[in-house]
Amino acid sequence: MFQIFGVPSQALFAQLMLGLVNGSFYALLSLGLAVIFGMLNVINFAHGAQYMLGAFTAFFLLQYLGLDYWWALLIAPIVVGISGMIIERLFLQWIANLDHLYGLLLTFGLALIIEGVFRNFFGSSGLPYTVPPALQGGRNLGFMFLPNYRAWVVVFSLVVCLITWFLIERTKLVSYLRAATENPTLVRAFGINVPRLITLTYGVGVGLAALAGVMAAPITNVSPQMGANLIIVVFAVVVIGGMGSIMGAIVTGFGLGLIEGLTKVYYPEAANTAIFVIMAIVLLVRPAGLFGRRA
């Protein structure tokens, strides 16, 4: 076993792998936030609760319907996405033209309600969710042991992020949506149902959070608090990448996951604050974020 800057290679690469896994969740969650804010100008503070709903949906599917992880990857984003569309229709559409603060306060209140209901029924302790048999075990690469499930999480989340980026940045759909948010009257004149388009976009952003929740379920316990513990970090990732920037959310999510992993190896005391220090520096140097554009 060789050492890198005084640290055994296995320990270093293990922490880098853990950082990539965390970065996968940061990227998926911040991508959903970026889609919702960039397209709808809504700061969705309920994103952490919707991430938790994805994990609980996977748990319910397995516990009560016998549908395993692979079914949950398909069904949970759809179910939670539909619940998000209902929230948009019932609440968010009425504050669409108001200050961002109203959306933040509303979604923050919804997050507290959702988490409170689940904590009342399931408590604060986590519920187990097993790794699917096809992804159990791992591979010895010589310089580290690579768990199959963690490798799957990194690869699958990267593929989802890139597909989402392509659909948003390289298709006409985003042009319609941006036009709908800036001049809805003109877009309606072309026969496009603007409210439906906005509702679907919010559902897609929420569905990405639910997908991340399903992927996190076998790694962390399914708990009502799992989203609350993560959402602050994810908002920091979005701010660093640039509010509304799709590629910024992806690159910053994975990049900060790696930085967090390196910090745990070389300076563990700063692991929980490294991302926020970086956020402060970025805001001082480039207030719009690394990939953001000035208003």
Describe the secondary-structure layout:
Elements: E1 3-4, E2 7-8, H1 9-40, H2 47-64, H3 69-90, H4 100-122, E3 138-140, E4 145-147, H5 148-169, H6 173-182, H7 184-189, H8 194-216, H9 228-241, H10 246-266, H11 274-285
Antiparallel strand pairs: 1-2, 3-4
Give a brief description.
With 295 residues, the protein is mostly helical. Helices cover 69% and strands 3% of the residues. It has one domain (17-285): ABC transporter involved in vitamin B12 uptake, BtuC (Orthogonal Bundle).
Protein model, in words:
- The chain is mostly helical and 295 residues long.
- It contains 11 helices and 4 strands; from the N terminus they run E-E-H-H-H-H-E-E-H-H-H-H-H-H-H.
- The protein has helices at residues 9-40, 47-64, 69-90, 100-122, 148-169, 173-182, 184-189, 194-216, 228-241, 246-266, 274-285; strands at 3-4, 7-8, 138-140, 145-147.
- The strands form 2 sheets. The protein has a two-stranded antiparallel sheet with strand order 1-2. It has a two-stranded antiparallel sheet with strand order 3-4.
- Helix 2 runs parallel beside helix 4 (100-122).
- It is globular.
- The termini are far apart.
